[in-house]
Amino acid sequence: MKKRFIQVAKPTAGFLAIGFAYMIFSELTGLALFCPFWTFLHIYCPGCGVSRMLTHLAHLEFFEAFSSNCALFCLLPLFAAVMIRHVYLFVRYGKKGFSRAETIGTWIIVGILLAFAVVRNLWRIDILIP
Fold this sequence. Notes:
The protein is mostly helical. The protein contains six helices and no strands.
């Protein structure tokens, strides 16, 4: 069990450290990653605004986080719950993979995000624009 915990903890800590360093860098310099969809096609992808959303969440600015990407903001608790469950099952029992219901749920979420991208580009409603 301890070995599996370390297997999860190392990449998680690395991912969080990189994300925190990116947040600090972008706040200090004003430079951020660009979205290739917006840069080359002038359309918003389902992930446009995610960096700002996570930065606002780190500062506990919930309305601004919601405004940056409302779909992912609303799906974040579900994603966090699924990830925590998977990490627990892996560390505790060594279980890998998704159940059939989780796989179907994942595809439903992908569909929601694609629909969100279509709606945010067709109607250009202010709350949907990052």
